Amino acid sequence: MLYLIFLLIVLIIFIPINTTITFNQKTFYIKIYNIIVINLFKKKKTNKVKVKPKRKINLNLFYTYRKEIIKSIKYLFKRLNIKLKYNITVSSSDAFNTAMIFGTLNSLLPALFTYLSYNYKFKYKGNIYCDFNSAKSKIEFNVLISFNLITIIIFLIKSLLIFIKIYKGGVLYGRASNRRINENYNG
Description:
The protein is built from five helices and six strands; from the N terminus they run H-E-E-E-H-H-E-H-E-E-H. By secondary structure, the chain is of the alpha+beta class.
């Protein structure tokens, strides 16, 4: 029975989790396994909630440990699988401005997405359209983010170690200050 529980835990840790973010003019929602988690255009209930006083955060401490924080965030982004589908319709009241924006987007977006696909697990597919008759631009995109649970656990552990280092002080992977002389050479 213990082996079965251990096997289930290991399988859950390594199964990828699919997260979808969808945005267009009328909808914005986030799904995990096709279950809507956040829907911003849904009517909200007006229940008043007591506001807790916010704890002040000293940003200078984060600045001193910025290398560890950036390293931890890079670890997470290197292991995410991101798929982007987009449709952009460029339009404005002036045809010249529409053409300039369309040309700029056609040159910058593929270059940006190519850079992201070489450095990260990033795939993209989409179109950019030009509409000279309307005055409103339209943006629709769908982002699918897939990750393993073990990646998030390791990221959270690294982040927790950094926050402990920031708030409690000390060295992240250091030794005690009262160690013996030449402790590495006692072999």
